[in-house]
Amino acid sequence: MPRTRNRLIAAARRSMLQRAELHRRLDVARAALKPGALVDRGKYRIGEKLDDTAYAVQEQFRANKLPIALAAAAGLAWLMREPIKQYAPKLVNRIQDLATDVADHFRTADDAANEDEIDTLEEEENEAVR
Predict the structure, then answer these.
(1) In this structure, what DSSP letter does residue 80 have?
(2) What is the dihedral of CA 52, 57, 60, 66, to 10 degrees?
(3) Are 60 and 68 in contact (CB under 8 A)?
(4) Distances in whole angstroms, Cα of residue 14 to Cα of each of 4, 89, 107, 117
(5) From CA 112, how far away is CA 66, in angstroms rounded?
(6) How far is the C-alpha of 91 from the C-alpha of 98, rounded, in Å?
(7) What is the pLDDT of residues 28-68, one digit of tens each?
(8) Where are the alpha helices (H) located in the chain, listed in sequence order?
(9) Which of 42, 64, 107, 128 has a C-alpha 20 to 30 A away from that of 58?
């Protein structure tokens, strides 16, 4: 009898330990499935993914500075295409007017006389050829 009694006592102890372990696991599962815990876990995972993505982007920028700069410039130009179409002709005309004014300012009276002489020489050559 003592053997069977010891077996029963050992079996009762094992079952109590198993039951306690199951209760502990159930409590952990309940705590993990609470809405607050789910939100916290989601925030953590999103934060980790964002950190990984930011690191990967930084590495790409470090490794490919020129292509990324060109792509960024092309993207900005594409975004600004309508304002460029609208204001570019006006800007070109202003630049041309400014260049003409600067050239006129630095042109001396002798240069104007020389141009007149060149025109008359060209006309005389044309008449002589005929």
Answers:
(1) T
(2) -170
(3) yes
(4) 15, 90, 110, 121
(5) 49
(6) 10
(7) 999 999 999 999 999 999 999 999 999 999 998 899 889 88
(8) 2-32, 35-63, 65-79, 81-106, 109-129
(9) 42
Q: What's the rounded Cα separation, in Å, for the pair 49 and 122?
A: 77
Residues in the chain: 130
DSSP 33: T
Query: How far is it, in rounded angstroms, from Cα 41 to Cα 47?
Result: 10
Determine the Cα–Cα distance for residues 9 and 41; give it in Å rounded to an integer: 42
Q: Record the tokens describing residue 127, joined without a space.
A: 């008449």
Residue 62 to residue 49: CA distance in whole angstroms = 20
20-25: long-range contacts, CB 8 A cutoff, minimum separation 24: none
Instruction: Give this prediction's pTM.
Output: 0.39
Whether the CB-CB separation of 39 and 47 falls below 8 Å is answered with no
**With the C-alpha atoms ordered 64, 66, 70, 72, is the resulting torsion angle positive or negative?**
positive
Residues 61 and 72: their CA atoms lie apart, in Å, by 12
